[in-house]
Amino acid sequence: MLAVYVLNVCDVGYCTNAPFSKGEIINYDVEKFKLKIGEATLAFDGAVEVQGKQALKISFTARGFKFLDEEEIYVDARTFYPVLIKRNLSMFGVEERITEFYDSQKGKVRVVKIAKGETTEQVIENGPQFDNIYGFIYRQRQLGRFGRDQMINLHLPTRDLQFKFVEQDKISVADQEFDAIYMRSTPRKYEIWFDSSVKRIPLKINGTLGLANMSMVLKTP
After folding, report:
1. Which of 91, 97, 101 is nearest to 122 (CA)?
2. How far apart are CA 10 and CA 90, in angstroms?
3. How far apart are CA 31 and CA 37, in angstroms?
4. Pick from 179, 186, 190, 128: nearest CA to 157
């Protein structure tokens, strides 16, 4: 059984000057070709202890017609690199439960998958410390570094990416106009528009959902 204990939120390093706090929930419409097909939430649940390690919990849920993606993402409290990820997926009636155990010292992740009544296990071990896209988003919000010449390497379990600042411009979401910082990955898988205010809320996110051409767009309160 996975041991998870609640910690005081300011016992860990992230809380100093963080633009987000425990209980923050960001609501999105899920769109495909600019048509709403579902809804999603991204929540910061605060500090926990996972198997003897201090961590922060991020919860992500997306649901719509014939799809469900529920994720519990536990990240290191200071680096925002993943420690443990639990996923519950359902796509067109195909259900999977996936648990990913990260070993940052050895640079490997053990993936346990339950699908169609069978359990399989895979160990991915291919170099430096693994990252996670939502851990990256909260790390960027915490750091607030969006330099024009900045290149950020992401080593994901299945691919390597580089994120870069593209431009700062206006974006209209949730019936409002925001000044936004646009970042894009190479290869072009992910695109993120951050609010340029002190909260640095991700206003729009492309590429994180499993189906092609799907966007998460900040929902009108």
Report:
1. 101
2. 35
3. 6
4. 128
10 Å Cβ neighbour count for 131? 23
- Tokens, residue 191: 């695109």
Alpha-carbon distance 216 to 36, whole Å? 10
Q: For residue 189, give every residue at least 6 positions away whose Cβ sits within 8 Å of its Cβ, in sequence order, or none.
A: 159, 161, 207
**Residue 97 CA: distances (Å) to CA of 85, 113, 186:** 11, 6, 29
Give me the count of residues in the chain: 221
State the CB neighbour count (10 A cutoff) for residue 62.
Answer: 22
Residue 145 has pLDDT above 80, yes or no: no
Residue 34 has pLDDT above 90, yes or no: no
Place of tokens 């189906």: 211
Residue 2 has pLDDT above 60, yes or no: no
Q: Rounded CA gap, 44 and 42, in Å?
A: 7
